[in-house]
Design brief:
377 residues; alpha+beta; Jelly Rolls; 3 domains; three-stranded antiparallel β-sheet
Length: 377
């Protein structure tokens, strides 16, 4: 397999990129204008030491043991050996990162996980590894040398005694040096190894959600209630065969049939997926929750509202889910529009009644719905 390099293709070009999505890596030359996307290092130190955003510090190089520390850190100074600081969920602090994600309109918003920044010294790396989800890697500052491929398999050897899951070196499909504005797309399970070539090398990672079967089945257990207890293992017409303690292949088939009958119950599968993909990546408490009596005057003073980057909203057949919770069915068009565009006008809020108005009020009070930039009281 060769890795194609495309020019003149932006992240918004779904017509082109859907050919590679979840299947093959691709390189996009100068696909992003990174001029306003590069944070200063003082800001990054403040984030590492003064916020609760998930962060890690990795030191080491391939062929030797890595060390791993988790933030938040009491203080931060650059280690003397090659290092990489990883900061997750930066869309909460940098709206411009969230805007990049929203530009990928050819993918549903609920597929998005978070924006992670890799900030590294010369020779800094997180090691040779693979992810079980798709990722776009946007080079913001400095250069990074990439070895891409091959695809991980069940036979891929994991390096023992490392604090993170690393794989043994093997011949890559291609090597490449990323410059600011370049983008590397990697499908799930594609081995990759990126090494910083410059001080303050920064790479922004757009990660995507891929709920595993275990998480969905866990959700099934959480949603199973008394009215579904009629769905049971059933072996009517069982033939007389097998030893007394033996579970037969036919028994396993009957167990599978019971699980499938449960998943086929009305709205069950919808609920399992929608609650998982709308669960917030981070639970962030509002700085000061608004009193309900203060919401109406605020709505009057604001023209346009937008969802906070951490708020997750999706719908199935007009049933609305917000932040991992089912809200209700027959969702009004204005709330479906909010889910799709992440914006709503105060005039449209005032049209809402009952449950739907209460939903908006709760979002405003919890700062999940905030005045649009340059539009406030």
């Amino acid at each position: 397999m060769t890795v194609k390099r495309l020019q003149g293709v932006s992240l918004a070009d779904g017509h082109t990129l859907q050919r590679y999505w979840q299947s093959t890596p691709v390189i996009l030359d100068r696909a992003v204008d990174v001029g306003v996307l590069v944070p200063d290092t003082e800001t990054l130190v403040q984030i590492l030491t003064e916020t609760d955003l998930p962060s890690r510090l990795l030191t080491g190089v391939e062929g030797s043991p890595f060390t791993l520390e988790h933030g938040p850190f009491k203080s931060f100074s650059a280690p003397k050996i090659p290092w990489t600081a990883l900061i997750h969920a930066l869309e909460h602090l940098f709206p411009e990162y969230g805007e990049i994600r929203q530009s990928l309109t050819w993918l549903p918003h609920w597929r998005f996980e978070d924006c992670m920044l890799s900030w590294a010294s010369v020779d800094g790396s997180v090691g040779r590894h693979f992810d079980q989800f798709s990722v776009f890697l946007i080079q913001l500052n400095g250069r990074r040398h990439w070895e891409i491929g091959p695809q991980a398999t069940d036979e891929t050897l994991i390096v023992p005694n490392q604090p993170i899951a690393l794989v043994e070196p093997q011949e890559p499909m291609t090597t490449w040096i990323a410059n600011p504005g370049d983008v590397l797309y990697l499908p799930p399970n594609m081995i990759h190894h990126g090494v910083s070539l410059d001080p303050d090398c920064m790479t922004l990672s757009l990660g995507f959600r891929a709920p595993d079967a275990g998480a969905l089945l866990e959700g099934a257990l959480e949603t199973f209630d008394s009215h579904q207890q009629h769905i049971r293992f059933d072996d009517a017409g069982r033939s007389i065969s097998g030893a007394p303690a033996e579970i037969l292949a036919s028994d396993l088939d009957k167990a599978k049939e019971a699980i499938i009958r449960y998943l086929d119950e009305p709205h069950v599968l919808e609920h399992l997926l929608a609650t998982r993909v709308t669960a917030p990546y981070l639970e962030i408490d509002p700085t000061q929750e608004l009193e309900e009596q203060n919401v109406d005057p605020l709505i009057t003073s604001v023209t346009q509202w937008e969802l906070d980057p951490g708020c997750r909203m999706a719908y199935v057949n007009q049933t609305l889910y917000v932040n991992g919770e089912r809200i209700g069915d027959q969702t009004p068009a204005d709330l479906l529009h909010l889910a799709n565009t992440r914006n709503i006008k105060s005039d449209d809020i005032r049209k809402l009644e009952g449950l739907w108005r209460d939903t908006i009020i709760d979002l405003i009070r919890s700062e999940s719905l905030v005045p649009s930039e340059n539009d406030g009281p």
